[in-house]
Amino acid sequence: MLDVTVIEDPAAAAASLDPKRAQLLAELAAGPASAAMLAGKVGLPRQKVNYHLKALERHGLVELAGERRKGNVTERLMRATAASYVISPLALASVQPDPDRFRDQLSARWMLALGARLVRDVGLLITGAAKARKRLATYALDGEVRFASAAERAAFIQELTAGVSALIRKYDAPDAEGGRDHRIVVAVHPTVKPTAAQPTVEDQPAPELNQ
């Protein structure tokens, strides 16, 4: 089972968004189960569960884990193909966000467009690397910082911009033969702290940076 799978096909995305099918995916991510075992957990008849499982299997979201005999019946044990799923903007290709339409480093919506492109591009790279049976060279950094004031946050952004820009100038080799282009995305946003009711966002929107 993969940790995360990116769903690029519109039909597969629609299948995964059905509430009952999403519930089945969650159950099968915890371990293999048959339609009969799942029926009580999701509150559906076994025949209906089988119907949903076949739809999920058709889109590659679940797979056969094995079979077992139970009386005169052979049960198919299914499992999720991933622990979690992310829907790529490719599933809505005609209306997917395009961060190249505008560049506004202080726009949260532009950051969202960058994030959508990141999901799309990395999803495509994962698919290609899997087909080629090659390891994908990526790097990600995640962290949190508490700023004492808006002025401190602004100073941090200035230093971050200068530092990343200097690294890009230092290592960029546009004329290198055999070189490969890489995209760098750096973002800064307020931390979302979920509550029992709904997520809340602390402080005011912070600036974002893309290089």
UniProtKB/TrEMBL annotation:
<protein>
    <submittedName>
        <fullName>Helix-turn-helix domain-containing protein</fullName>
    </submittedName>
</protein>
<dbReference type="InterPro" id="IPR036390">
    <property type="entry name" value="WH_DNA-bd_sf"/>
</dbReference>
<dbReference type="Pfam" id="PF12840">
    <property type="entry name" value="HTH_20"/>
</dbReference>
<dbReference type="InterPro" id="IPR011991">
    <property type="entry name" value="ArsR-like_HTH"/>
</dbReference>
<dbReference type="InterPro" id="IPR036388">
    <property type="entry name" value="WH-like_DNA-bd_sf"/>
</dbReference>
